[in-house]
Design brief:
By secondary structure, this protein is of the alpha+beta class. 48% of the residues lie in helices and 16% in strands. It is built from 20 helices and 15 strands. It has a 6-stranded mixed beta sheet. A 5-stranded mixed beta sheet has the order 11-15-12-14-13. It is globular, with a radius of gyration of 27 Å.
Length: 568
């Protein structure tokens, strides 16, 4: 954090990285956006910070917060829980250790408590021994080379010329024959009868859907959550358009508002104190901006600010108090903290274009098809990156004004007239009843009297997802300084409950198989795929040197298909 707040770096990269797959795992601190001339200062800052922590000590509250996160990891179950167990055990297993030992988390925590009881400075001594007094360290500086791509192209051209000069008629004929044989093989359909077939009868009876109880704005459901309670609050109603704020700057600031809501601190706590309190009492904690289509009407959408928190049963009161604090008492007038946060967001977004350009192409291709997808692009696409870069370029004056902009955004999003919906999930019985009582007696009164938001879209909801704009008739090309291309195409389809939606949902994975043959095997792209969302269907390719997706879709192109291409 010292590197980011001092301006020596813009974002973290492998910060505190612990690779447990090695017999002797390394510990590293990585950052991006570093001036190469200041590399020695970065290394010195890291060592000075570690020395200060060793000298001043680690507060017991921070240790307790870290242990609490470990406990949460045992309780919070996801669909990847089995894979997480495997990943935890494989490191010891590969090196001849007991694969079950890493899974005995409670035993390790109990051992840590004994170590701390015997030596309150256990972590400080470990830091000194393993890091500060450890001479086996290296500083790696990776800098971009502007001429790298040109050298690769020139080297490839030279190699091809050398190969061509050595060809005679016999070798040329052999290459032509191999090329024809490859084309024939690629055009041949594989025999799928050798693969096992899964039918509906193999799946068995589907489990009963969870019982959901609704009373006014509250929706609650009893689930076996391992002692966890999950609370979500959504501010917005069917037909609402969060983008209809007084200024375009405020509309573009919505994602920043949601991201910074839980990181700036409150009237009573600094950002560090808030972060520690969240780690000590909460699991998930934060907010997001999003929009969805009505399940039965592709012309009706709802955009919302959603705040969420999860906690163990014993910590629910404090977790709800913290969520109320950030919703009502966040200190927005902190230009230095906002500058750091924006720099991190810009750095992560720019890196994301090179790694996941097809995701940005998907948003850009869908944007002309309706206000819902236009908002998604403005909140998470190139438009959002451009907005954050403009804020950065504005200097001190821009960040001084940004706090006021975010405060006005919060006033609009949390205005008393905006409808609210609340979701509560907890174990059945006393835990669910207790969490509901805490929610209704502590958090909801702080937010004031509000209109209960509808969970289902009413028949007379405003149609704020109108017909596609004229922009859908022209492909959108974006020039980027990348040696690879990304492409996407989108078309509006049907809502979730339409009779054709299930078929479209199944069509997407089937198309991925076909696209693999056309886009990767024949076109040379790294990959491609298809996707189906409510109201939207599309295809994409990534690292596509010949833009093969665009070529194979040419015969079916019509005015209702929207294209986006990122190319060099």
């Amino acid at each position: 954090q010292a590197l980011i707040e001092s301006g020596l770096a813009s974002n973290f990269a492998l910060a505190g990285y612990d690779d447990h797959y090695h017999r002797e795992p390394p510990f590293s601190v990585g950052v991006t956006g570093v001036d190469p001339a200041r590399a020695e200062l970065v290394e010195r800052t890291v060592l000075d910070t570690l020395a200060a922590v060793e000298r001043d000590g680690i507060p017991r509250a921070r240790i307790d917060a870290a242990v609490h996160q470990v406990e949460l990891g045992l309780c919070h179950k996801t669909t990847a829980f089995g894979m997480a167990l495997f990943r935890a055990s494989i490191g010891a297993w590969l090196h001849g250790g007991d694969p079950v030992a890493p899974l005995r988390v409670r035993a390790h925590v109990e051992r840590l408590e004994r170590e701390l009881a015997a030596d309150p400075r256990f972590f400080e001594h470990l830091l000194r021994r393993a890091l500060l007094d450890n001479a086996h360290r290296v500083t790696l500086l990776a800098t971009p080379d502007a001429a790298h791509h040109e050298r690769l192209v020139a080297a490839e051209a030279a190699r091809l010329e050398r190969e061509r000069a050595q060809l005679d008629d016999v070798r040329t004929a052999a290459i032509v024959a191999q090329t024809r044989a490859l084309a024939e093989r690629q055009a041949r359909h594989d025999d799928l009868s050798c693969l096992p077939t899964l039918t509906r009868d193999d799946i068995g009876d589907m489990p009963a859907p969870p019982v959901v109880q609704r009373r006014g704005a509250l929706q609650r459901s009893a689930q076996p959550t391992g002692g966890m309670a999950y609370v979500k609050l959504a501010f917005g109603e069917w037909g609402d358009a969060l983008e209809s704020l007084p200024s375009d700057a405020e509309a573009l600031a919505l994602p920043l508002y949601a991201a910074a809501l839980s990181e700036l601190g409150t009237a009573a706590m600094t950002h560090r104190e808030l972060a520690q309190a969240v780690e000590l009492h909460c699991g998930g904690f934060g907010a997001s901006i999003g929009a969805v289509l009505a399940p039965d009407n592709a012309d009706v959408a709802r955009s919302s600010l959603t705040a969420h928190v999860s906690a163990l049963e014993r910590n629910v009161p404090r977790a709800l108090e913290l969520l109320g604090d950030v919703l009502t008492d966040t200190r927005w007038a902190q230009p230095d903290q906002l500058r750091t946060h924006v720099a991190r967001m810009v750095s992560a977004s720019r890196d994301g274009i090179a790694q996941s350009g097809h995701q940005y192409a998907r948003r850009l291709a869908a944007a002309p098809l309706g206000p819902l997808w236009r908002a998604a692009e403005r909140w998470g696409g190139l438009s959002q990156i451009a907005h954050l870069q403009r804020v950065q370029a504005g200097g001190d004056a821009a960040f001084d004004a940004l706090g006021g902009t975010l405060a006005r955004v919060g006033d609009a999003l949390l205005a008393p007239e905006r409808a609210m919906r609340v979701s509560l999930v907890a174990p059945d019985g006393a835990p669910l009843a207790s969490a509901q009582q805490q929610l209704e007696s502590t958090l909801l009164p702080r937010l004031g009297e509000r209109r209960a938001g509808r969970f289902e879209a009413p028949a007379d909801a405003a149609r704020n997802n109108a017909a596609p704009s004229q922009l859908a008739r022209a492909p959108l090309f974006v020039a980027l300084p990348l040696p690879v291309n990304y492409a996407a195409l989108c078309v509006r389809t049907v809502p979730l409950l339409h009779a054709d939606y299930a078929a479209l949902r199944l069509l997407a994975p089937l198309l991925r198989v076909q696209l693999h043959a056309e886009v990767r095997e024949k076109g040379g792209a790294y990959g491609g795929g298809a996707f189906c969302d409510a109201g939207l269907f599309g295809m994409f390719s990534y690292r596509d040197p010949h833009l093969s997706l665009i070529h194979i879709s040419e015969p079916t192109r019509h005015a209702q298909i929207s294209y986006a291409v990122f190319c060099l």
